[in-house]
Specification:
Number of strands: 0
Number of helices: 10
Mean pLDDT: 86
Shape: globular
Length: about 220
């Protein structure tokens, strides 16, 4: 049964990776990722009054079937990130997977490379936010997401709930609740109750989900 599952997983990853569009890497250098402590003032702490975040964003795509505990997944992702036609998505996926596997240095180095080769790519910065969050650096996550929002140019729907969980990680309950209220206006059904919110983000990874549960306990006291 396990070998069958692994074959199925490998086929899924192979299809996923082969389907990624190739991009010509931009060789413009980007500055190395700053220390997390440098990001304290690099994000918008509170939303504007009556803010609405309803825009789609093709760069914000989760891959819940990607399992960091399956070595075949890790090998396939690493191979794609080292290929001759490596894309921003390949590097972003590799960096995120490394962060889930606890490889802080590898994750940061991979995202540094992604920023150097694709310096104005929203997928890279959106992923970088999740990498930092999984590395227990929520202020850095907020700064990365602020840059992803800037690159997008609009108000993508992922911003409010992402900021909310990073802010709860910083123990900034006021700001976390303010952004969560914006998220509830954006997704009134999906976030209408604690149960629905948990179901909506059931695919989140353990650290992400733990932060969500903290936020839900605060936002839905009944």
């Amino acid at each position: 049964m396990r070998s069958s599952h692994l074959r199925s997983s490998a086929l899924f990853l192979a299809a996923l990776l082969s389907g990624c569009a190739s991009q010509s890497p931009d060789r413009m250098a980007a500055a190395p990722i700053a220390a997390a402590s440098d990001h304290a003032n690099a994000y918008q702490r509170l939303p504007a009054a009556n803010a609405r975040y309803r825009d789609g964003d093709p760069n914000a795509r989760a891959e819940p079937r990607l399992n960091p505990e399956v070595d075949q997944h890790a090998a396939l992702v690493a191979r794609a990130a080292q290929g001759p036609s490596v894309s921003a998505e390949d590097l972003a996926r590799q960096g995120y997977l490394l962060s889930l596997r606890g490889d802080r240095d590898g994750a940061i180095a991979t995202l540094d490379e992604a920023r150097t080769r694709f310096p104005d790519n929203g997928r890279v910065y959106w992923t970088l936010g999740w990498v930092w969050l999984n590395l227990d650096e929520p202020a850095a996550a907020l700064a990365a997401w602020q840059e992803a929002e800037r690159i997008h140019g609009g108000r993508p729907a992922w911003v409010p709930y992402s900021k909310a969980i990073a802010l709860i990680a910083l123990n900034d309950e006021e700001a976390a609740l303010a952004w969560w209220q914006v998220a509830r206006r954006t997704l009134p059904y999906q976030l209408g109750s604690a149960k629905r919110a948990l179901r909506t983000f059931s695919y989140w990874r353990p650290k992400e989900r733990a932060l969500l549960e903290r936020l839900i306990a605060l936002a839905y006291p009944d």
